[in-house]
Design a protein that fits this description.
Blueprint: H1 6-19, E1 24-28, H2 36-44, H3 52-57, H4 64-67, E2 73-80, H5 88-92, E3 99-100, H6 109-128, E4 139-142, H7 150-156, E5 161-162, E6 168-169, E7 177-184, H8 203-207, E8 213-215, E9 218-219, H9 225-231, H10 241-244, E10 247-249, H11 253-256, H12 283-287, H13 291-297, H14 307-321, H15 326-333, H16 340-359, H17 367-379
Parallel strand pairs: 3-10
Antiparallel strand pairs: 1-2, 2-7, 4-7, 5-6, 8-9
Helix pairs in contact: 1-6, 14-16, 15-16
Family: Belongs to the QueG family.
GO cellular component, one term: cytoplasm
GO molecular function: 4 iron, 4 sulfur cluster binding; cobalamin binding; epoxyqueuosine reductase activity; metal ion binding
């Protein structure tokens, strides 16, 4: 029996990754010591908001070898999720429809990637059993599901660089992809990082509706629409509600304006195809769903975890931002009594509708959003 050639194994891992549906696979060590002071400074400024688990696990996030003792390498993967007919501009330009972040239109990505990563780990184990290898191969897959800094690891593994919006960008694929990690106890050869290519561009910073990108590479989650509509359990601060427009689950603005996303590829995964009820949906239709219907349609979807009341909370804000219609006010009035937080948002939305009725105003978009829609239509015609 011959000895295990780790270089040949690394080549096989990348080939198996492609066969399993990943667009890229890279390998890095576990040293994220350079990230620790940045992470601590971010936590000290309370930029994590109500995400207490961020502070709870602290520097463990930068130490994969402590998360899974014995880990020597991290295999980092990316998988495209941009669906056909993304309808970015079409939805953002229609205040009577709800905009859902495009990653959430299909099946929950956690399950899809974790299953593939597990298969990759099993292939590695089976391969090693054919050779003289003193030890047991241990691996654990993670997909946005543990205290681990997936983006710095992806950068170390050569999958791209971190843009000023804090997301990983690849010069051949943009940023419309999910990341996953396989922690493993094999001393595999590592890949080299790629050079950052954002230059002086600050398009993502100037486009963010709420000013959440407080400085390059730094997000104040408390201002981010994705945080406000997904992670925040209580009331959305009033100052941000008008700025949310019709975004009811997440926000893609910083990616939509990014020039590198002109090179993005569509997903090859049927699981990420939009569910009909969630693609370019009418706000009033969504608002009239019963809890049973919400749970049924969002089964196996990342949207389900916010729960029915937060779903209604988000939609009520979007309805408040929509042009005045009698039927909107009537729909809002019918939802009182389900919860104090929701009731407060309903009162706000009704007040906004009444102001629009009195002013007879047709202004429904900020100049910032109009610029974004124009940029999408011109720069991303396939996905507009």
């Amino acid at each position: 029996m011959s000895s295990l050639d780790l270089h040949h194994l690394a080549q096989n891992i990348k080939r198996w990754g492609t066969e399993l549906g990943f667009q890229q696979t890279g390998i890095c060590d576990t040293d994220l010591s350079l990230e620790e002071p940045r992470l601590q400074a971010w936590l000290d400024k309370q930029y994590h908001g109500e995400m207490a688990w961020m502070a709870k696990y602290g520097m463990t996030r930068a130490r994969p070898h402590e998360l899974v003792p014995g880990t020597l390498r991290v295999i980092s993967v990316r998988m495209n999720y941009l669906p056909t007919d993304a309808a970015f501009a079409r939805t953002l330009n229609n205040p009577e429809q709800g905009y859902i972040s495009r990653y959430a239109l299909g099946r929950d990505y956690h399950k899809v990637l974790r299953q593939r990563l597990k298969k990759l780990g099993e292939k590695i184990t089976q391969y090693c059993q054919q050779f003289e290898y003193q030890g047991i191969v241990n691996f654990r897959p993670f997909v946005d599901s543990a205290p681990i800094m997936e983006r710095p690891l992806a950068v170390k593994a050569g999958l791209g660089w971190v843009g000023k919006h804090s997301l990983v960008i690849n010069n051949q694929a943009g940023s419309w992809f999910f990341l996953g990690e396989l922690l493993i106890n094999l001393p595999l050869p590592i890949d080299s990082p790629v050079e950052e290519q954002c230059g002086k561009c600050v398009a993502c910073m100037t486009t963010c509706p709420t000013g959440a990108i407080v400085e390059p590479y730094t997000i104040d989650a408390r201002r981010c629409i994705s945080y406000l509509t997904i992670e925040l359990e209580g009331a959305i601060p009033e100052e941000f509600r008008p700025l949310m427009g019709n975004r009811i689950y997440g926000c893609d603005d910083c990616q939509l304006i990014c020039p590198w996303n002109r090179f993005s590829s569509l997903t090859e995964e049927d699981d990420f195809s939009p569910r009909r009820a969630l693609h370019t949906p009418e706000l009033l239709d969504l608002f009239q769903w019963s809890e049973e219907k919400f749970l049924r349609i969002t089964e196996g979807s990342p949207i389900r975890r916010i729960g029915y009341l937060r779903w209604l909370r988000n939609i009520s804000v979007a309805l408040g931002n929509a042009p005045y219609q009698d039927k909107i006010v009537l729909a809002l009035q019918e939802r009182f009594g389900l919860g104090e937080v929701l009731d407060e948002h309903l009162h706000w939305a009704i007040a906004q509708q009444k102001v629009k009725r009195e002013e007879k105003t047709l202004k429904i978009q900020t100049s910032q959003q109009k610029r974004l829609v124009r940029a999408i239509t011109k720069g991303l015609p396939r996905d507009a």
